[in-house]
Amino acid sequence: MSFKNLGIKKNIVQNLEKHGITEPTEVQQKSIPKIFDGKDLLVESETGSGKTFAFSLPIINNVKGDKTQALVLSPTRELAKQITAEIEKATEGTDVGTVTIYGGVDYEPQIQGAKKSSIVVGTPGRVLDLLKQGKVDVDVLDYFVLDEADKMMDMGFQDELEQIIGFCPDERQNLLFGATIPGKLKKMVDRYDIEPETIRIKKSHHTRNLNEYYIDVDENRKLSMLYTLLKVRKRDLSIVFCRTKATTRWLTDKLKKNGIDAETLNGDMSQNQREKTVERFENGEFNVIVATDVAARGLHIDDITHVFNYDVPDTADTYTHRVGRAGRQGEKGEAITLLENDQHRQFRQIKRDKDGIKRIDNDRIDLRSVNT
């Protein structure tokens, strides 16, 4: 199967090939033909499976002119910018314009960009704001897309999404993508009489190169264990997940004191600081980000090889989103959860929902001493 066989125009296929994208993933193979057929879709596929091109390539293939024909919503500014970056890979040398709309920056460039772009990518709050002001025109909208729709439900965007739907024409194609399909999303779909076809991509088809482990560790040896794992693993870029902003700052400081090139990513940072940190990380200026879940949502960087759960995630869905940062687009990856003695009950539910998480024998790991 090739992108050409799926009906993608030759110039778009050539653009993808320039970026080393030659074969469609499973979610792309299953979604693209149905989108061309005009179907509404509800797609469950894990992070890193190629969802952005699954919904954007048929849109790019079909839109023309400078009227807004596609509205793509995402839960975070970071993800919105990365969706735009992916779309721009495929639209090089074409007349398809894309603008990114999100809060925390000036309105005017976004307003001007929306006037001449056929694809608008944005976060719900700023998009709704501009719709209310009459600065974004969706009268001829053909495509309404939610990316990471499950996370938008988790983050409380349901009201904004429903208001945005109220601005959209009744005759439109609805494309809803997420790593899971939560009940809140199903209820919203039913309320607006959207009857999508459901596509579910099994984990094994696109995360077979991601090895998932847990390791038992005493609380007072946890820092030393993480440090040792970071030092002995052959890795490129790594994310360490923590539950709180305070822990990210504390842990970053400890890692730096022990020679690990790490930086913090959390919600206390300004949008500009977060964007610069992510850019530096992506450019390889440092190789470990210590992050909270909220700050790391929408962080899709193909070169991330390792995810470390310093703190156990609260739910199986959160675990899925965390570990999905590594081993993207078929590359090899590894996810390791550090499990304290009193956390086995909490982690048991995650193991039940996720097949194939293996235990690492900590007796075989020679812990290195750390400066505390």
Fold and architecture overview:
The protein has 372 residues and is of the alpha/beta class. The protein has two domains: 10-202, P-loop containing nucleotide triphosphate hydrolases (Rossmann fold); 207-364, Rossmann fold, CATH 3.40.50.300. 40% of the residues lie in helices and 18% in strands. The chain contains 16 helices and 14 strands. The protein has helices at 10-18, 26-36, 51-62, 77-90, 108-115, 124-132, 149-154, 158-167, 183-191, 203-206, 222-232, 245-257, 271-282, 293-296, 316-323, 344-353, and strands at 41-44, 70-73, 98-101, 119-122, 143-146, 173-178, 197-200, 210-216, 237-241, 262-265, 288-291, 304-309, 333-339, 358-360. It has a seven-stranded parallel beta sheet with strand order 3-4-2-5-6-1-7, sandwiched between helices. α13 (271-282) links the parallel β10 (262-265) and β11. α2 (26-36) packs parallel to α3, α3 (51-62) packs across α4 (77-90) and α6 packs parallel to α8 (158-167). The model has no long low-confidence stretch (mean pLDDT 90).
Give the topology, please.
Layout: H1 10-18, H2 26-36, E1 41-44, H3 51-62, E2 70-73, H4 77-90, E3 98-101, H5 108-115, E4 119-122, H6 124-132, E5 143-146, H7 149-154, H8 158-167, E6 173-178, H9 183-191, E7 197-200, H10 203-206, E8 210-216, H11 222-232, E9 237-241, H12 245-257, E10 262-265, H13 271-282, E11 288-291, H14 293-296, E12 304-309, H15 316-323, E13 333-339, H16 344-353, E14 358-360
Parallel strand pairs: 1-6, 1-7, 2-4, 2-5, 3-4, 5-6, 8-13, 8-14, 9-11, 9-12, 10-11, 12-13
